[in-house]
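hey
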């Protein structure tokens, strides 16, 4: 008898040395290094190198990696034309998925991959994402696409390509930390999608396009947008208790609370809360933050014993709002970070590849007699 496990919960889908979670005590590590250390001490380029190569780079290695990654920021005229042709009203994640699928065709050359060429492709995709996402947002608004400045760091240049203005140091530092926090998270839905498509030996653009499509869903990367919408609907800290009680009475999910793996507060949420405090001290607080704090307080008392605490989506949107980033770019920025993890998993999958072919538990009928079309009465076999 085949046992069916909905969502493949707790079923290992791969062996990986990229990231690790202990959900009982709230630990997240990249290649054995705690996320708190990386978010505080590293640039995103360092973390990308770590995810791809399994160790932190030397200064010369980091310089080389950064130079190659920055050189890839430029978008061809063909890609820019494609971006401008996409419907203005479409969600940026739908546009990103389309562009990523097309990007591989413009990037070439194609053919047989080996470890060296695969890593080159990984660096190219990591390098392209800042300019790609910024261009999608600019074109959506009917604005000119801003060319990258390869003398600037990833976070600084991304914010500049969004707004046309060089960001202050605090904004760049906060975004850098946010990107590190979102860079990888073991076998989540979008990473699994990457590895499934990669296992067929499709082009990397096909695998990353599948990952973007998976991340777009409201139960995955799109949750941060819904958290902001929820906090706005609540309206004030005084309204949190009635909101919470109504949700509990109706057995409804509260966005940003709970996680499939973590049974304590997501360590990324803790760091994001600290980042938001830094921004509030510099620029003033947000009423949404006060609502979020009250919701976390009540939820911790009422649901903490069940292992339900804030996850990464609970505070990330508030931080992005303080950076002046529009809500519909929250999930693309998640992808801007996660591209490094996706490419690391793509590399790892291809080193010992075996195509994914899970089984199923059949629940249908057997032995149904064929009926000619003129004798059918429209009754379903089920």
């Amino acid at each position: 008898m085949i046992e069916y496990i909905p969502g493949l919960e707790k079923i290992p889908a791969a062996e990986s040395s990229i990231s690790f979670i202990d959900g009982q005590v709230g630990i997240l590590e990249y290649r054995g290094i705690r996320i708190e250390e990386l978010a505080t001490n590293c640039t995103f380029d360092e973390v990308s190198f770590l995810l791809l190569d399994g160790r932190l780079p030397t200064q010369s290695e980091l310089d080389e990696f950064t130079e190659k990654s920055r050189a890839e920021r430029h978008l061809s005229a063909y890609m820019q034309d494609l971006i401008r042709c996409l419907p203005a009203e479409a969600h940026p994640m739908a546009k990103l998925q389309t562009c990523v699928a097309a990007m591989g065709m413009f990037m070439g050359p194609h053919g047989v991959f080996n470890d060296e060429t695969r890593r080159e492709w990984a660096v190219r995709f990591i390098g392209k994402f800042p300019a790609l996402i910024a261009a999608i947002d600019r074109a959506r608004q009917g604005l000119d696409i801003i060319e990258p400045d390869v003398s600037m760091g990833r976070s600084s240049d991304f914010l500049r390509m969004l707004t046309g203005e060089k960001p202050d140091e605090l904004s760049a530092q906060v975004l850098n930390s946010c990107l590190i926090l979102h860079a990888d998270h073991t076998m989540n839905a979008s990473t699994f999608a990457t590895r499934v498509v990669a296992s067929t030996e499709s082009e990397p653009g096909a695998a990353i396009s599948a990952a973007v499509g998976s991340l777009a869903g409201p139960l995955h990367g799109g949750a941060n947008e819904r958290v902001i919408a929820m906090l706005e609907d609540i309206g004030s800290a005084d309204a949190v208790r009635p909101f919470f009680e109504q949700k509990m009475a109706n057995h409804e999910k509260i966005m940003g609370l709970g996680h499939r793996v973590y049974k304590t507060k997501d360590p990324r949420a803790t760091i994001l809360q600290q980042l938001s405090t830094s921004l509030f001290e510099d620029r003033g607080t947000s009423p949404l933050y006060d609502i979020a704090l009250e919701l976390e307080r009540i939820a911790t008392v009422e649901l903490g014993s069940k292992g339900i605490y804030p996850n990464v989506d609970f505070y990330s949107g508030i931080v992005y709002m303080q950076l002046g980033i529009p809500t519909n770019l929250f999930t693309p920025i998640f992808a801007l970070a996660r591209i490094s993890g996706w490419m690391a998993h793509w590399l790892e999958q291809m080193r010992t590849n075996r195509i994914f072919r899970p089984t199923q538990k059949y629940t249908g009928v057997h032995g149904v007699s064929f009926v000619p079309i003129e004798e059918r009465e429209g009754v379903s076999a089920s």
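Strands lie at 19-22, 27-30, 33-34. The radius of gyration is 22 Å.
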